[in-house]
């Protein structure tokens, strides 16, 4: 064989092997490869975006519809059981809607999620801790400890850390990367 023929056959073999390999990895819908791929892909994302209409409409009209994966099940259970005094407001829902939203929150809570922020929040909880605010978790505090209170509390456009989407420009999509932050009246966040 001439040298160029050797190179050609080598390219052909490599391409075929590559195709066969990717077909086994991606073509197997229910197999382990696919679920491992999904798991690996998900674990790189921040937190699952909200995809329940009732939750988005009922809870997202008063404040950000926080992604369920930002708190554990115990927190959502306690919160949904006490809506008549929801941080000082009466936010009661009909029993049916309350149950639908609770089911959604429990199914998507941080406990068994493999999204990285959910894992971070779960990992930061003390045994038995049931936070009712995301901003109370050690994980949240650790991530925001370099931001002076004056930038938030004394900021007329902001007032509180609970307004995630005011600073995290893609919070709505479940993305909280620090390079997407833009603080109202302050601008981009540089470490
Ligand atoms: C005042 C604007 C502001 C608000 C409001 C805010 N954040 Fe942040 N957040 C930041 C900044 C700035 C950083 C990056 C901090 C750093 O790198 O020191 C950050 C970092 C984070 C990170 C880590 C990002 C990374 O790349 O490591 C997460 C997760 C996060 N915020 C979630 C939230 C959630 C959830 C809320 C609402 C409950 C919220 N934030 C509210 C400004 C804000």
Question: Which key features would you list for this structure?
Answer:
191 residues; mainly alpha; 2 domains
The oligomeric state is single chain
Average predicted confidence as pLDDT: 86
Strand content: under 5%
Strand order of the largest sheet: 1-2
Low-confidence stretches: 23-31
Main sheet summary: 2 strands, antiparallel
Q: Give the number of DSSP strands.
A: 2
- The H-and-E topology, N to C, reads as HHHHHHHHHEE
Shape: extended
**Rg over C-alpha atoms, rounded to the nearest angstrom:** 23 Å
CA(first)-CA(last) distance: 59 Å
Bound molecules: heme C
Helices and strands, with pairings:
Elements: H1 3-27, H2 32-43, H3 53-60, H4 73-80, H5 95-107, H6 116-124, H7 138-144, H8 149-152, H9 164-167, E1 182-183, E2 187-188
Antiparallel strand pairs: 1-2
Helix pairs in contact: 4-5
This protein binds heme C.
Residues 70, 117, 134-135, 143-144, 146-147, 151-152, 158, 161-164, 166-168, 176-178, 181, 183, 189, 191 line the site of heme C.
């Amino acid at each position: 064989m001439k040298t160029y023929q050797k190179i050609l056959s080598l390219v052909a073999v490599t391409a075929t092997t590559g195709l066969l390999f990717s077909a086994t990895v991606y073509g197997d819908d229910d197999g382990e490869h696919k679920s491992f791929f999904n798991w690996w892909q998900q674990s790189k994302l921040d937190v699952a975006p909200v995809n329940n209409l009732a939750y988005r409409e009922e809870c997202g009209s008063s404040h950000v519809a926080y992604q369920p994966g930002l708190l554990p099940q115990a927190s959502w259970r306690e919160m949904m059981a006490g809506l008549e005094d929801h941080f000082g407001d009466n936010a009661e829902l009909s029993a049916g809607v309350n149950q639908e939203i609770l089911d959604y929150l429990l199914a998507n809570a941080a406990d068994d999620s493999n999204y990285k922020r959910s894992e971070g929040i779960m990992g930061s909880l003390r045994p038995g801790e049931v936070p009712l605010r995301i901003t109370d978790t050690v994980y949240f505090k650790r991530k925001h400890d370099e931001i002076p209170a004056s930038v938030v509390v004394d900021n007329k456009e902001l007032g509180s850390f609970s307004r995630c989407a005011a600073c995290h420009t893609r919070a709505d999509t479940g993305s909280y990367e620090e390079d997407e932050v833009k603080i109202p009246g302050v601008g981009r966040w540089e470490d």
